[in-house]
Amino acid sequence: MPFAAPYAPADEAIFPTLIQFQTVGKDAMDMAARLVKGIRAAKTRIGGLEDFLRDYDLSTREGLALMAMAEALLRVPDEATQDKLIADKIGAGDWDGHDPSDAWLVSAATWGLGLSNRLLRPNDTVPGIMGNLTRRIGGPAVRTGVRQAMRFMGHQFVLGETIKAALKRAQENEAKGSLHSYDMLGEGAKTTADAARYAKSYSDAIAAIGKAAGKRPLPMRPGISVKLSALHPRYEPRNHEAVLAELTPVLRNLMSEAKAHDLNFTVDAEEQDRLELSIAVIEAACAGDILERWNGFGLAIQAYGKRALPVIDWAADLSRRTGQTLMVRLVKGAYWDTEVKHAQVEGHADYPVFTRKAVTDLNYLACAERMLALRPHLYPQFATHNALSIAQIIHMAGDAGGYEFQRLHGMGEALYAAVTRETDRPCRIYAPVGGHRDLLAYLVRRLLENGASTSFVAQAGDDKIPVEQVLEMPANLAEAPRHANIPLPTALFQPRPNSNGLTFGDADELNGLAKAMRAAPVMDEVKPLTAAQAADAMARAAKAAPAWRDTPVATRSAALNRAADLLEAHRPALMATLAREAGKTIDDGIAEVREAVDFLRYYATEAQALCQSRTMPGPTGERNEWRARGRGVFVTVAPWNFPLAIFLGQTAAALSVGNAVVAKPAPQTPRIAAQAVALLHEAGVPKDALILAPGGVEVGQALIADPNLGGVAFTGSTATARSINRALAEREGAIVPLIAETGGVNAMIVDATALPEQVTRDVILSAFRSAGQRCSACRIVYLQEDVADGMLKMIEGAAATLRLGDPMDPATDVGPIIDADALERLKAHVANHKPRYEGEVPDGLFMPPTIIELDRDHKLTTEVFGPVLHVKRWKARDLDKVLDEIAATGFGLTFGLHSRVDATIAHVTARVGAGNVYVNRNQIGAIVGSQPFGGHGLSGTGPKAGGPLYLTRFVEEVVVSTDTTAAGGNASLIAMEQR
Ligand code: NAD
Known about the structure:
Layout: H1 11-18, H2 26-41, H3 49-55, H4 61-73, H5 79-91, H6 103-112, H7 126-136, H8 140-157, H9 163-175, E1 179-184, H10 192-212, E2 223-226, H11 228-231, H12 240-260, E3 264-267, H13 275-285, E4 297-302, H14 308-322, E5 326-331, H15 336-345, H16 357-373, E6 378-383, H17 387-397, E7 404-408, H18 413-420, E8 427-433, H19 436-451, H20 456-460, H21 467-470, H22 507-519, H23 531-550, H24 553-569, H25 571-582, H26 586-610, E9 614-616, E10 622-630, E11 633-637, H27 645-656, E12 660-664, H28 670-682, E13 690-692, H29 697-705, E14 709-715, H30 718-730, E15 738-741, E16 746-750, H31 756-768, E17 778-784, H32 785-799, H33 820-831, E18 837-838, E19 850-853, E20 868-874, H34 879-888, E21 891-892, E22 894-898, H35 902-911, E23 916-919, E24 936-937, E25 955-963, H36 971-975
Parallel strand pairs: 1-2, 1-8, 2-3, 3-4, 4-5, 5-6, 6-7, 7-8, 11-12, 11-14, 12-13, 14-15, 16-17, 16-22, 17-20, 19-20, 22-23
Antiparallel strand pairs: 9-10, 10-25, 18-19, 21-24
């Protein structure tokens, strides 16, 4: 049975099947109450994770600041940055709010800040302690203290730094009858070398666990969890074929090794976007007879996912087909926040996860019931710390056995001690194994998951909350299965709808789109205008302008909104032209159509506000009415690199406030412009109010010299903007506005507190996506020298995983360069330097992702418009010099910063001259209405595209002042009654 389930069904459709689980039987409720009381009776200080959660209320800034400090501190090699980070995080706290007898502070002092309980004196005030500590920064005490604290925490929450150490420690537990499942901590692989390293570490761990496993039969044998995203650097749905070909054999090897030792082998759950891919990989890996005589293979399923039940059914089917039991771990899911954000960012129709925690709890029970019913095909492993879920499962399961519970190492000890008094079912310990560096990321995750004051774990541990309240379910679930404060992704920008994205994780949708793109007809050639045709276009537009200006703004906006809908309806055809004409890959194409749609709707909305006439204040007997209206004929001049979004954005802005437009696309990309203009006409924009003017420099020059010109909106290179500016200055007649958005030499600064995996992801995207042919692309990254080597290694390794080729192939990351001239220019630039990295290229107009390291004195002063990333190293004390160097280029378009130090972020963002500043993320892909886009200095005149001031440059203002007393006196004043 192939797995097939809708990616993100509506909550309302699923909820009726879940509601029955809201009713809890009396026996189960009583048992749950006994379990909570058990937890409370066994409470210890500075013990398990629950104590820690209780003591560090994550809802406080201080709690988060301390975690963030510890997380980053461990990877910072230099003392100057360590001290900066510590001062920053301690400075962030509102220490006045804490009582010194506060358990929170005691804990904070014990581990996070390197103080010991003994150092606290009875009369200490909290600000006093913190002040003292701040003075000690710079001394080794705090740094050493944090490291010691890490060791303490490591011992608490990680079974061992190595599998050997973990196994040794597990022996004590096993003597008491506990089972283990080992989890190797770490981020997903970013490079092929990382993936190979993870595979080896899994393989070594399997051998070691197998050797220590003893003689008990499955399911009472130990296990290991394997993350597929650790085994492939590009574990992404659009990479389906490569992942299947490259990852499946690696997974099968590990499975065979685990099978040889008869271990439990669990494929861990990944993001919802990767669920179909994971299932495809598991299907492929289970082909043949690998599962024969092995009842230990399985997977983890996330109950917050709306597809959890179909996954269970698919797993049961796999079990039937292979005749083996699968061990299936049911979790609630640890990345809920990421899932919600992802769906919003990508413009999905709905969320693939439930938005209310209580609904996930119900789905957990629905899944549990299904899994229990599917015994012995499945051996359910219930990984939960929720006493109510546990009690309900015990009652659902009856006495037949055939399942187990799981708890996290360092958590749930008291709870499961109480569970053992209720049932003989075993509890397996999920045991993280890894070094301190990976611990914190894991711990922060667990804290976020369980530390929210609303979470079960936090409430169960809090004596002040009555037991009945801990076990209570929200009463309004049936009426409100969705979270009231989480709008659908489509409703993010109300009242205008968000543009539709593509669900890459839905293979049918992705493949359907790719197929429709290939099937889309190739557009006919679009011929450039002659000089006479250009003049004629301007004349016709001038004639049409007054009527369009006097059309009610609501009518103009309705036409633009209709055009947005038409664009979405014609998406495959538009994307096909974008791919053929501009080399846009599928993800670029989706983003470009979305941006164009957003522009249309945004300006349609903004124009309605701007074009309302307003009565201005003034003396009595006078009416002052202010109005904004179109200026006449705007010429819009667009670049080839956003031939749909920028072309339409400028044009829609001008049209929305009542200008007629003559729109000139770049000579490389006239077809997509012709398609866009045709859709605007279809949507109701009169033919002469919007005229397409294909052609190159000559056509542009003719339009700008034309006497009918009322304004110019230009996007392109700085040199062209200058030349247009000069041409405008030489014209006779009225001086018209010029809006110019131009290029940039965009920099990113990375300090030693940044997470290398995040830096790598964001540098690769910013520098190489769209073959670097974005005005916003990162051209130069400044790496703090203390971490530069490691970062560069990872960045180069990740660059090597990029695939260049046919833009219509979903697996392609980087498409071609726009034309042979541009490619020549890029090659000439690279030839003048000695690149430290150059990727491989297929035949055709391709430029390899290239990395050039510049020495201290070498400055990058011009825009290199392609996939060429420059790198420079900087010393921790020289941050301001780096900022000076960036400012000296004169450009100011985009800028990126990766740092965990808030003071650095504040300092840099205040000083840097770029129009768009991005912190701890990539620096491309500005969202209309959310991140208005445009630069300063050599990068443009402003106002920002997609921002609140943009339309104001496209209007002229009129004020009509009428003396209402002129005929017969001030009637309204006289009539006004005095009280
Ligand atoms: P370009 O300057 O060569 O051409 C832009 C447009 O101007 C084209 O339509 C071209 O035909 C026209 N043009 C050229 N000379 C002209 C003249 N004398 N009079 C009138 N029109 C003339 O730029 P391009 O190569 O198409 O685009 C890439 C450049 O655009 C890069 O520098 C990039 O940074 C910049 N860009 C900036 C932004 C932004 O928002 N700041 C966005 C995209 C691209």
